[in-house]
Amino acid sequence: MIWAYLSLLGRIILLGYEKIIVKKLGTFNDSKVISFLFFFVAVFFLLPFIFLDKIPNDFEFSKYGLLSGFIYSISFILYVKSLSLGEASLVGPLYNFNVFFLLILTSIFLKESFTLKKVLGLSLLVYGASFLDKKGSFLSSLKFLFKRREALLMISSSFLVSLGRTVDGFVVERVSPIFYCFFLYFVISVFQLIYIVFGGKLKEVFKVLKENTYLVLIASAINAYSYLFLLFAFRYIDVSIAEPLSMLSMILTVIFAHYIFKEKIGTRVIGVIIMILGSYILFL
Q1: Is 208 exposed, middle or buried (0-12, 13-18, 19+ CB in 10 A)?
Q2: Nearest by Cα to 273 from 142, 89, 124
Q3: How far apart, in whole angstroms, are the C-alpha atoms of residue 173 and residue 193?
């Protein structure tokens, strides 16, 4: 169990910086191109690990991996687009709205328990989100958030992620997390390459890679290893607990956004603290 929580800690640290790197890459580049590179290069970071693992004899899991990969291929295009349009300290935490969808989906499909503590924790997460762009009352603030295009893109991305995480939680019980992660990222890369080719963006891929080699490598490494950490945690911790705990990374994102992009975080700090409290209740 201790390795599961250490894996989550590694994920939290990596995710805290991921949104900063993705915003840097996505601000002046096509979101489909960045999303493709985000996963395609990550495949090579994962490749050495599959030689340390046993290749499954049964590839029954592949149909679930194809479904999950298709979902993620769309989700992360929306994710990159949202970060390119909005402030990282605002839209970054909204990514964690997937806990609402996860609570419902995992209760239905993975038969995970639906407890009062989970409801209380998630309620605090929602309340904290209202402080990310405070506009009067709780409902007014949430309503204002939902009117922002970048916010809607991130929430849509989080919904799709919750679908993918539900599938992942089912699959990792039947196949090695290392091999599944590699397989999934390869599938996502293939789907996104199809988008790139049909969109006539192939030349732009090489241009972005040449001009932003260092940032692409960092972003892809963070992407590969943070997700691998999550898959390891899934083996011992409920999906609806492991994913909300990853939200602790948002306090790092807010701090980085303030010092790197000079964003005014104001009441967002309060919102983050409330959301972390909600995560802590889920952890109890």
Answers
A1: buried
A2: 124
A3: 29
**What digits encode the pLDDT tens for the residues 219-273?**
999 998 987 887 778 777 776 677 667 778 888 899 999 999 999 888 888 888 8
Return the residue matching tokens 């995970």: 112
Rounded-to-integer distance, Cα 252 and Cα 256, Å: 6
Q: Copy the structure tokens of residue 206.
A: 């090489």
Q: Which two tokens stand for residue 165?
A: 């995480």
3-state secondary structure at position 257: helix
Per the CB < 8 A criterion, the answer to whether 254 and 23 are in contact is: no
Distance CA 100, CA 249 (A): 18
With cut-offs at 50, 70 and 90, classify the pLDDT of residue 282. Answer: low
In this predicted structure, what is the pLDDT of residue 7? 85
Give the structural domain span for 61.
2-283
Number of domains present in the structure of the chain: 1
In degrees and rounded to multiples of 5, residue 29 shows phi and psi of: -135, 160
Cβ atoms within 10 Å of 69's Cβ, excluding its own: 23
Query: Alpha-carbon distance 121 to 243, whole Å?
Result: 13
What size, in residues, is the chain? 284
d(CA 100, CA 87): 23
